[in-house]
Amino acid sequence: MKDLLQINNLTKAELLSLLDKAGVVKSSPADYYSSLSHKTLLMIFEKPSLRTRLSFEAGMTQLGGHAIFYSMENSPMGKKESVADTARSASRFCDIAMFRANEQSMIREFAENASIPVIDALSDNAHPCQALADLLTMREKDKDPSKAKICYLGNGNNNVTFDLIRAGALLGNPITVGCPQGSYDVPQRIVKEVNGAVHISHSASDAVRDADVVYTDTWLNYGILREDLDLHINLLKPFQVNASTMAMARPDAIFMHCLPAMRGYEVTSDVIDGPRSVVFDQAENRLHSQKALMLFLLGL
Ligand code: CP
Ligand code: NVA
What is the pLDDT of residue 78? Predict the structure, then answer.
């Protein structure tokens, strides 16, 4: 395997061993301080980021390597230069690349023409790095992702949701998605991709009942205009995670969110800032799991 474009590019065994490795890298960071010395990570961004940018760059520093931030705003790629030529040139300077793009088709084209490993760092179709950090966090909180009831509430037509669905299918423990019908429903292509291994409910209360993990993501994805969200917000409102939602989950359920969050929209402040929220552990685990991922893709 060369690239990680979605979480199910990994086999179940690879995923489990990567999560084990992430735990080891997290507990003994000093053992890896020179693992990627003289290696360079290229980070291409077409969309904004806080966690992905910082965690990859800090991770590369901690592994003894170097990371280059490259914004598509200042790039000829896709305008004056083909994606393929960009990938071929970049492969001559860099050892590994991560790419955040509007459309995964562009990342795929880059990966097909690159001779170095390429990671999808969020696109319309996936967010595998987020899924890795999420699974690591669930494990640490004694919510084994192979067994726990994981309930995602909100926009089912969403990159983060897709990779959580794929992860559940891969681990043999389909997740539950509570979402509105229509444009925020899980697309049939994703249901087909996982051979139906996802539980979808259009009732938030049915979906969240007895959940061990309650997960949501923003209703305002990067690139969506606030006015467009406002037009549809009534559809999403029943799927907000608030105190009454959490009361329907198991008493020891945790709350997860990939961030960035909009308090008062997909989640209320009392929940995200409350004792059951693990969102900053989740954010931190981006660092550890991506360090393990880069080591894995580079065969180390
Ligand atoms: N969760 C996540 O990917 O955050 P950023 O958009 O800040 O990178
Ligand atoms: N679904 C969100 C995730 C942000 C990390 C988005 O695409 O903007």
Answer: 87
Four-point Cα dihedral 54, 133, 287, 290, nearest 10: -100
Q: Residue 4: inside a domain, yes or no?
A: no
DSSP state at residue 187: P
Please give the share of the chain, as a percent, with pLDDT higher than 70: 100
Query: 88-130, pLDDT tens digit by residue?
Result: 999 999 999 999 999 999 999 999 999 999 999 999 999 999 9
Q: Is residue 24 part of a domain?
A: no
Residue 258 Cβ contacting ligand 1 at under 6 Å:
yes
- For residues 162 and 238, state if they share a domain: yes
Number of domains forming the structure of the chain: 2
54 lines ligand 1 (CB under 6 A): no
- Cα 114 off chain centre by: 23
Distance of CA 88 from the midpoint of ligand 1 (Å) = 27
pTM: 0.98
Tell me if 50 CB under 6 Å of ligand 1.
Answer: yes
Specify whether 204 is located in the same domain as 136: yes
Which residue owns the Cα nearest ligand 1 atom 4?
Answer: 51
